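stage 2 :: seqdesign
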């Protein structure tokens, strides 16, 4: 058990950092949404009903959508682009393009098989983030649309088709406000790592490294 915790400590702590706020968001969101429904003359939802409500689904996936967009774009942009002095950038020049030193162990099966599977595997990280972004985008749209249907019903208005809601400014306002904040965070990490350090972190250059050193 101790070895398992040591080998997986980072992902386990991050998983806990995901689950605990998600529980808090669900419980507090349940109260907030019920207050809104009651004020508008609607019936409050049970916690079980709230778990599948448009209010919760939209609030979760509009944030996840921006996270996956941020990471996917970051993975792709760092392939070709550089930032002099940033720990988050590849070195400015790689004259010999030597293969990185690999630890001993079996190669992943796509590498052993080659062909189409190797080509797919070479881009699998960006593809995975792209698919996660697309799924989160669709779930965000679905949740926001279902929430809008409830709001319209409470106001005595007719329903709106999902494709029509896709053109509504409110949906894109929800998306853009999250997208810009994610890219702000990445920009801050890329640029601040030029001049600032965090001893022991792989996201930082060594404390003694000159500001011009690019990459870790």
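stage 2 :: out
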């Amino acid at each position: 058990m101790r070895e398992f915790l040591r080998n997986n400590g980072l992902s386990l702590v991050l998983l806990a950092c995901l689950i605990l706020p998600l529980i808090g968001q669900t419980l507090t969101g349940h109260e907030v949404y019920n207050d809104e429904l009651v004020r508008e003359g609607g019936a409050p939802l049970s916690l079980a009903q709230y778990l599948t409500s448009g209010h919760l689904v939209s609030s979760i996936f509009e944030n996840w959508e921006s996270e996956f967009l941020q990471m996917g774009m970051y993975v792709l942009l760092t392939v070709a682009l550089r930032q002099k002095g940033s720990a988050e950038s590849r070195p400015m020049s790689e004259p010999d393009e030597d293969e990185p030193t690999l630890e001993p162990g079996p190669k992943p099966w796509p590498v052993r098989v080659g062909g189409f599977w190797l080509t797919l595997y070479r881009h699998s990280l960006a593809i995975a983030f792209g698919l996660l972004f697309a799924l989160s985008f669709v779930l965000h749209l679905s949740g926001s649309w279902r929430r809008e249907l409830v709001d319209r019903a409470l106001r005595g208005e007719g329903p709106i088709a999902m494709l029509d809601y896709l053109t509504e400014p409110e949906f894109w306002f929800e998306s853009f406000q999250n997208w810009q904040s994610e890219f702000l965070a990445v920009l801050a990490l890329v640029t601040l790592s030029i001049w600032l350090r965090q001893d022991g972190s792989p996201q930082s250059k060594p404390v003694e490294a000159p500001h011009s050193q690019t990459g870790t």
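stage 3 :: structure notes
- The helical segments are 2-39, 47-51, 54-80, 109-113, 115-122, 124-154, 162-165, 169-195.
- The CA atoms of residues 29 and 56 lie 7 Å apart.
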